[in-house]
Specification:
320 residues; alpha/beta; Rossmann fold; 2 domains; 4-stranded parallel beta sheet; 11 helices; 11 strands; 43% helix; 18% strand; elongated
């Protein structure tokens, strides 16, 4: 192992830069050359890469987004696209690739590994939907961003005796919605993993809380549930409370990463390089019970992550 490459792929997440920084500096410290690949697998297909130095990653640990940029790559899903990426690696004497991204990015790493390019994946997605790890890079920052935005909305909701229906990101996973909902005292939390009845779990709870004197409400909706605008109209019609829907959207992907995400990214970035130095390939490096470990990518992708139903029960009981 003499030269490696690092790329960021899929949706961006706070902490990607911290992970890139850790990969580059760990590799250089251990005598490896490092190439930065721009715009994910597209960059690997098109040869859009350049050598990285210690100074290439200065002043990025605190920045959101990714200095290497990112992109979806339909071409890489074809065998022809994969072979172009493999040829780029061989042409540039790249022995291994660190892929920072989500499950789709890891499937790409599998394809490269299949053709003899050693690959290590680092889980980085705000959705926290990768089952092999306790938390993914970017998740903590996204939750804190959403919480701060809800706190601001609460001020105006309280002033107007209003109900706010707030939709947060997470793709098909409800982890952001559940935890932020608890943190802001949402009256109802709707997530795709748990069945719900709008009348019983939203309308009745608002009316019951109103009977005790509560005059403003927050309803948290996961992206995988959707329909926030329609729900807001229904709540207003059934309860008489003025109700507004707010969809946070991609603002949750941005911003400075939290301490938690910066440290996690640094740990995983370092370990990814250590695995390559040890001759490992087709692995995902993760954190379980605050310990760094790694899994075969196929095994990692086959794992199923479940929402903490006890946490959901608690949120239901303490939010009236």
């Amino acid at each position: 192992m003499k030269k490696i490459a690092v790329l960021t792929s899929g949706g961006d997440a706070p902490g990607m830069n911290a992970a890139v920084r850790a990969v580059v500096r760990t590799a250089l410290y251990n005598g490896l050359e490092v190439m930065g690949v721009y715009r994910g697998y597209n960059g690997l297909i098109n040869g859009d890469l350049e050598p990285m130095t210690l100074r290439s990653v200065s002043e990025i640990i605190h920045r959101g987004g990714t200095m290497l940029h990112t992109a979806r790559s339909p071409e890489f899903r074809t065998e022809e696209g994969i072979m172009k990426a493999v040829e780029t690696c061989r042409k540039n004497d790249i022995d291994g690739v660190v892929v920072i991204g989500g499950d789709g990015s890891f499937r790409g790493a599998q394809d490269l590994s299949r053709h003899g390019i050693s690959c290590i994946g680092i889980p980085c997605t705000i959705d926290n939907d990768i089952a092999c790890c306790d938390r993914t890079i970017g998740y903590d920052t996204a939750m804190n961003t959403a919480m701060e935005l809800v706190d601001k909305l609460r001020d105006t909701a309280q002033s107007h005796d209003r109900c706010s229906v707030i939709e947060v990101m997470g793709r098909r996973a409800g982890y952001i919605a559940l935890n932020v909902g608890i943190a802001v005292g949402a009256i109802s939390i709707l997530v795709p993993e748990i069945p719900y009845d709008v009348e019983k779990d939203v309308i009745d709870r608002i009316l019951a809380a109103a009977q005790t004197g509560k005059q403003h409400f927050i309803v948290m909706v996961a992206e995988g549930v959707g329909g926030s605008t329609e729900l807001a109209h229904h709540i207003e019609k059934q309860t008489g409370f003025e109700t507004r829907a707010t969809i946070f959207g991609h603002v949750q992907r941005g911003g400075r990463p939290t301490l938690c995400d910066r440290v996690l990214a640094s740990r995983l970035g370092d370990e990814a390089v250590q695995l390559l130095l040890a001759g490992k390939s087709n692995r995902v490096v993760t954190v379980r019970n605050d310990q760094i470990t790694d899994y075969d990518i196929e095994e990692a992708l086959a794992m199923k992550k479940t929402l903490d139903t006890n946490l959901y029960r608690m949120a239901h009981e303490i939010s009236l």
